[in-house]
Amino acid sequence: MSAPGRYSTQPPSRPWPVCATRHRAPSSCLLFTAYASLTPLLAFRMGTRVAGGLHFSDKSLVGVSRLLEDLQHLLEDKDSADIIFVIGREETHIAAHKLILKARCKSFVEASGGEVCVIPGSTVTPGSPHTTIRLPQYQPVIFRQVINYIYTGKVVMSDSGVFEVHGVAHDLGLEELCQHCEDHIATTMTPHNACTFLMAALKMEQRTGGSKGSRSFVDRCVAYIGENALECMQTSSFLNLSREALIRLISSDNLALEEEDVWRGVLNWAKYGAGVAQPTAHWTEEERLRVCQQLQGVINHVRLLLIDSQVFAEEVEPTGAVPMELSLERYRYAALPNKFKDNSTNEDKRLQPRVSLKLFAGSQILINEKMSLQRILNNWYGVNKQMWRLVYRASTHGYSADAFHRHCDGVAPTYTIVMGQHGEICGGFSDVPWGKTTMKGRYVASDKAFLFTLVNNQDIPPTKFPVIKKMFAICYHPDCGPIFGAGADLFIAGNCNQNLESYSNLPHSYDGENASCNTLMSDYNFTVLDYEVFSPYGK
């Protein structure tokens, strides 16, 4: 199909190639089997090593199932054991065999000078027929999982236990198990379980005395929740956070929320913990007291001075949770902000806005120094604090037209944000959705749609180009990506990262100051590096 002419109103007709996309469903648990690492002998006898793993022929698998059963029975055979682990404060006894441990665990392999092992925090008592190793810092149920992995290569990973398993695996020197724990966290963390992960990571940090590894996990969880704060605060796992976990979270400078929404999240947490469901105006005195008790020690970490004065008067002060002195300070700040700042130190966090508010959470285009462009899009939308959810990203979901329509059809309103190969950022807004039709292509009318440029090579400041031919605002075509205008003013082809079929024929159905076919992407035809589609939360 040749591109529609500058004055054509015919929708595109040529199908574009469709590429397959991969989907990976999240899972709350991970089950893996590491046959290859049972013993070096097994590695040599059962197969050949290929690209870091083992390849087994069908015949060589015959004995593996029985081998695992025998090793499981060996694990349960206390009579032949020569190592007794005494785990936790309960002093739970778990039997094991030194030969197996020495084949599998670095902490046993690297022992020297008559040492049995080099496990941090252990107390070793040599004896006959058993050597006793006391490990009071571990939970018995977690340690049993790790021992089972040592013998059989199998472990069931839960969200709540993954950090504890990682801690034991790290201390015993089980690098493969450590890697699987880290992979589990990276691939399964979602807004629904991120707060559960945070609680588990904090427990591990407390148990290990703040080890470097545990702090790293806590920081990773806080960073993820910070980037996805709005979604995470709407989950039951957020409401079940401990006081310490909540304080750790809201103390972060990188919580991607306005301070009003931080307060609302904290208040919801306090109401849940106090068993209060009614709005503030309907609280009894007893309910008010319970909520205030929940907020003790927490409210000081909310940056109340940054909360809008009307919100403070209508939502914060009526709870009775803010001390009178702090309320007076809040009103002094609202009346004389400059004088207040002059009398405060630069380190006063109460005056420092959260530094990474992400209105377009998950965007890989409007990040770092480009984050300020998010506010421009919101200004054009007309709601300054609107939060947007990522519906589709070509580099994640696939560049094919099929992938675009599978995720975006029927969704409105939307912002489509496009990045070119030379750093250009442009796109379009539509208040009407792309939708399936029996026709090859059809136009959808809108009087609110517009195109925009945010970054270009012509030194044009961020500019929007409103629709002027409203009947041709957007076009639906199953074999093409998003199409704006009958020109087409902005046309994104299928597999747009691999060809020069995308183009801009601006101005046609859209127009405005500095509008030209080179404004959006520096040239008429172009290749797309990536593009994203967002829709408002709550729509």
Automatic annotation (TrEMBL):
Transmembrane segments: none
PROSITE patterns per record: BTB (PS50097), TLDC (PS51886)
InterPro entries named among the record's database cross-references: BACK, BTB-POZ/Galectin-3-binding, BTB/POZ_dom, SKP1/BTB/POZ_sf, TLDc_dom
Domain of life: Eukaryota
A Pfam family this chain is assigned to: BTB
Domain called BTB: residue spans: 81-159
Residue ranges annotated for the TLDc domain, each copy included: 364-537
Name under which the protein is recorded: BTB/POZ domain-containing protein 9
